[in-house]
Structures are given as C-alpha cells and as structure tokens.
Amino acid sequence: MRKLLNRFPSAKGFTLIELLIVIAIIAALAISVVVALNPSKRIQDAQNAARTSDVATILTAIHASIVDNKGLLPSNMPAASTETQLGTDASGCGILTGGCNVTAAACANLMLGTRSLTSYLKSMPVDPSGGTTYTAGKTGYSVTVDTNNIVTVRACGKEGAGNNISASR
Predict the structure, then answer these.
(1) In the chain, how many domains are there?
(2) pLDDT given for residue 101 in this prediction
C-alpha cells in the first residue's frame, strides 16, 4: 500500500479558487485606495497651490520694484481702483471669473517700461489651467491698486469650490 501512495505524491500549490479569492481581495483594496486618494481632487489642489504661489510671486516682484524705485509703482500699472488682467494683449482682456471683475480692454504688461518687473521675474506666470484660455497674452491674474497704494493680485481661475485666491500688500 505504501508503494501505491508514493507513486502519486500529494500536489503542492494553490487551487484556482484560492487564487481567484486572493485576486479579488487585491482588486478591492486597490479600488478603495484609488477612491480614498481621489486623484481629481489632488489635481485641483495642485493647480490652486500653483495659483497661490504665482500670486505671491507677482506681488513680491511688484513690491521689490516699488522698494528699488523709491516708492514708484512699476510702469504700466493700472489706474487707482481699476482691476486689470496681466498680460501682453492689447485687447480682449476683460474677465469676470474667480472673483476677478476686469472690464478693461487692454492687459497690463508689467514686463515693459522703465520700471518693469524684468529684473524680478523671468516671465509673467500664467494660470496653470493654460490651454487657449490663459496664455502670456492673458495670464489669468489681475492687479489693482487702491487709493492708499495697496496692491492686490488675484488669480482669476480656480478649481473646485474653494475661496478666490488673492493677496494684498
């Protein structure tokens, strides 16, 4: 009898059912991780973080220019209390999104003129959603100066239901 049992050694390994159960558990875990991470929310957060950084960069460059030029605003700044989109385009710069209320036809090109921002910025930041909506001509950022010379820079685009992105100094 012993010789008969040795002829057919017991099979070692996993059955098909066991393998299918393990694969199903791994798939369920993978799906729950993807749902928990919410990639679209992460993309929105990243774009809003880029906008926040761009607003701070533009405002810092404007204030560095003001300090270096003994209190004078950069060339091509909009008139007091007039919100103007930043960019190089001479027309079509009105924008009414993300808290921006720009009705001016021409964009404010702060990279030109005697007191330009070229010493402080390599190029004017462009909204991260990019595409055909925001370009170097129409950056998606606006600037306004109030009567007390407080400069406000605002991101006209935003992702999700968060607050509008702006900074003032």
Answers:
(1) 1
(2) 87
